[in-house]
Specification:
Shape: globular
CATH topology of the largest domain: Aminopeptidase
Number of domains: 6
CATH class of the largest domain: Alpha Beta
CATH superfamily of the largest domain: Zn-dependent exopeptidases
Helix content: 10-25%
Mean pLDDT: 85
Distance between the termini: 103 Å
CATH architecture of the largest domain: 3-Layer(aba) Sandwich
Number of helices: 7
């Protein structure tokens, strides 16, 4: 009996095994992770081209509506046929997919190979050398998508390569996070508590890593989500989500709310900070014209978008005079807005504004009288009124003189970042206005080593517009006045310094022993101008070879990588500078190295966290910063040499002087077309603490210029040309008299 049962079980087992063997290996479809949306909605991207056009449609035939520079972070709204619809700030349009890197890594995206014998290349295109091969169903962590190519991580050691997107399936390695929170999560289900919180004005609100345009994206808030306000820097607010993520949101894109008093309204922008209870209206249409007067015959001064909250100042017929979320005053058609809602409780406004050379603080409300009470150290001022505002709040500002504005009981307290100077413009029932301007209190020249340091002491926030005429350098301080008669002074290189008032401000005239290079530095309650002696000995010059490691930059028609050419030129220039006695520093130490900041460098809150910031950090204490690049354009016939500066930099005037010298030397030696010195917003030019230029030597996209850029002779001539420009900039050397190539 037992033997028969054993035989029966064996027979059943054999039959079952035969049955199972006849079934397909995968009786159900193989389970894959969720695919990545083909249009990449909600992903972020970084601009990799130097200066890239934003167009009105997905093709080069559409008109250019704006431009973005390398390092700018964009929000991807849609992606199709190698064109991305993107948004940055108030600009929405289309950019070519090969000019941006769409961030896949922070979203946990994997790349699954879908074909056999697939090439892995060193760069995003078939012009690049094959690095290795891979096979079907291999899965790699995906880093970025550029055009029709995806960069993947090949090894645990960080080796990367590029694979054609058509040979891959992009999928989430884990269940995908909500697109609105890419790349971080804002934990929307938990309400955020705090004195002030922010919500999105529109569908989403981007939280950036730092308070600088182009910073990396930390997270996004969607409608109904909020974050607590922790601080401010100009037009940006530092926030913290309920999940503990910290970052910065742009004020005009944010709806600021006081949980303890929902009737309060706020405006936070680059030049206006307002809080109060006042009449408001909401824009009900998209792309609404913002005009200079009450009618369509007045010029358009800006645009408004659906959902924007407006502070209503006045009406004229069907038109409303309003203040926009950016702090701009203008007119909007009433039929494109909601009905005006009057504020509840005690109506009042407290508004700090920057207007060119001066700043104003205006307080309005139902008070009969007010008194202005300065603090003894000039670090704050209290405007005490006869009316209780019935609210309590503090709005951080951290821009110009202003640190914060606080409203409590019947008082408005303004705290300053430095000692401030102001005049009472008006103090009357219902209105107080203070005007803030800097006052020059003293001049001093101190000699240190081979330099003279001019210090202009001020009370109040001041900046300098600088012009040079030969040996005379004039610093104009907009809006400034003189506290008293300021005596002249002198040093060794600085022969004489005088100060005099003129319309709109104060001139500080500096006469030097020659056309000396100088640097401008702003500190609390002072402006410093440093003048060095002629010559290169002892000068600190930073040379930045553009692009690095896994970023080859532009690629020529025959595959020449910009990164390699930039390095050859930079290395040669550094050797020439060292031979002349200068301290010359490269921002990376080899062709394939990654740029690193100076020893001890660490980004501070509000600083752009990227290799660009590490490069710019070398400019601390430097006399000159030179970033070497080579250009690219779709039109292969375009050729020539271009120099870029940033007019926002305090040292813009000296940057332009060196750029003009360098352009002259390069075009003469290389025989290239002079394409001019141009203003830009390149990070290394904008954030440099010394005079700074970005050089575009030639166009790699031009076949003739690419052939020149392959030659060591061109690298030598470029280095020699820049070296001669440096000599002339620091008061030595002369230009060559005959062209080279």
């Amino acid at each position: 009996m037992r033997a028969r049962n054993v035989l029966k079980c064996a027979a059943w087992a054999l039959a079952l095994s035969i049955l199972l063997a006849s079934l397909p290996l995968y009786p159900f479809p193989e389970a894959h992770a969720a695919p990545v949306p083909s249009k990449l909605e909600g992903f972020s991207a970084t601009v990799v081209g130097d200066v890239c056009n934003i167009r009105s449609g997905p093709d080069t035939t559409y008109s250019v509506i704006g431009s973005v520079t390398m390092g700018t972070t964009l929000e991807v709204l849609a992606y199709e046929n190698n064109w991305a619809k993107v948004r940055t700030g108030s600009l929405t349009g289309f950019i070519a997919g090969w000019l941006i890197d769409v961030d896949l890594g922070s979203r946990g995206v994997s790349a699954r190979v879908t074909a056999t014998d697939v090439n892995v290349r060193e760069g995003p295109g078939t012009d690049y050398r094959v690095k290795s091969m891979t096979g079907k169903d291999k899965v790699y962590p995906a880093e970025v998508k550029r055009g029709a190519w995806v960069r993947v991580t090949l090894t645990a050691g960080g080796s990367t390569g590029w694979i054609s997107e058509g040979l891959l399936r992009l999928e989430f390695a884990e269940p995908p996070p909500p697109p609105s929170d890419s790349p971080g999560t804002a934990s929307p289900s938990v309400p955020v508590q705090g004195d002030l919180v922010v919500f999105p004005v529109r569908d989403t609100l981007t939280i950036y890593a730092n308070a600088i345009a182009g910073s990396a994206v930390v997270a996004r808030l969607t409608r109904g989500q909020s974050a607590r306000v922790m601080g401010a820097e100009g037009g940006y607010l530092m926030v913290e989500t309920s999940g503990g993520l910290r970052g910065w949101v742009y004020g005009p894109d944010s709806k600021v709310v006081s949980p303890s008093d929902s009737g309060l309204q706020f405006i936070v922008s680059q030049n206006s900070w307002t809080v109060g209870k006042y009449p408001v209206s909401t824009v009900t249409a998209t792309d609404v014209n913002f005009r200079g007067g009450p009618g369509t015959s007045y010029p358009v001064i800006g645009s408004l978008d659906k959902g924007d909250t407006l502070w209503v100042l006045d009406t004229s017929g069907d038109w409303k005079q309003v203040v926009s979320p950016k702090g701009q005053t203008g007119w909007v058609a009433g039929w494109l807005t909601s009905s005006t809602t009057q504020g509840s409780g005690t109506l009042f406004t407290v508004s700090a504004r920057a207007n060119g050379g001066d700043r104003t603080l205006t307080i309005t409300g139902p008070f009969e009288s007010a008194v202005v009470i300065p603090s003894p150290d000039k670090r704050s001022v209290i405007v005490s009124t006869s009316t209780f505002f019935n609210t309590s709040l503090e709005l951080p500002v951290n821009a110009f003189e202003f640190d914060s504005v606080k409203v409590a009981t019947s008082d408005v307290t303004v705290r300053f970042r430095e000692k401030a100077n102001y005049d009472i413009v008006e103090i009357a029932p219902g209105r107080v206005e203070l005007r803030f301007t800097p006052v020059v209190t003293s001049l001093d020249v101190r000699s240190s080593g081979n330099t003279d340091i001019l210090t202009i002491e001020t009370v109040g926030y001041a900046w300098a517009d600088v012009k040079r005429e030969g040996n005379l350098v004039t610093l104009f301080l907009p809006g400034a006045s003189l506290a008293n008669e300021v005596p002249s002074c002198s040093g060794r290189s600085v022969k004489n310094v005088t100060v005099s008032p003129r319309d709109g401000g104060v001139d500080v005239a500096v006469l030097t022993t020659g056309p000396l290079a100088y640097q401008i530095k702003h500190t609390a309650n002072s402006i410093q101008a440093t003048f060095g002696v002629s010559g290169l000995v002892g000068k600190k010059i930073v040379v930045d070879p553009g692009h690095e490691a896994n970023d080859p930059g532009a690629i020529g028609p025959t595959g020449l990588a910009e990164r390699n050419v930039n390095w050859e030129m930079a290395a040669r220039l550094v050797e020439l500078l060292k031979q002349a006695g200068a301290t010359a520093i490269l921002t990376r130490q080899s062709l394939y190295a990654t740029s690193e900041g100076p020893p001890g460098f660490a980004p501070i809150p509000g600083q752009y966290s990227h290799s660009l910031s590490e490069r710019a950090a070398w400019s601390q204490g430097a006399d000159l910063f030179i970033s070497i690049h080579n250009n690219w354009n779709y039109n292969r016939s375009i050729a020539g040499t271009t120099l870029y500066v940033c007019d926002k930099n305090p040292n813009a005037a000296e940057s332009r002087r060196f750029a003009s010298l360098a352009l002259s030397e390069l075009t003469l030696a290389l025989g290239t077309r002079d394409m001019g010195v141009r203003d830009s917003n390149f990070h290394v030019c904008r954030e440099s603490m010394s005079p700074a230029v970005l050089v575009e030597v030639m166009f790699l996209s031009n076949p003739v210029e690419e052939s020149y850029l392959r030659q060591a002779q061109t690298w030598d001539k470029t280095a020699q040309s820049l070296y001669r420009a440096v000599q002339r900039f620091f008061g030595t050397g002369t230009s060559i008299s005959v062209p080279g190539i």
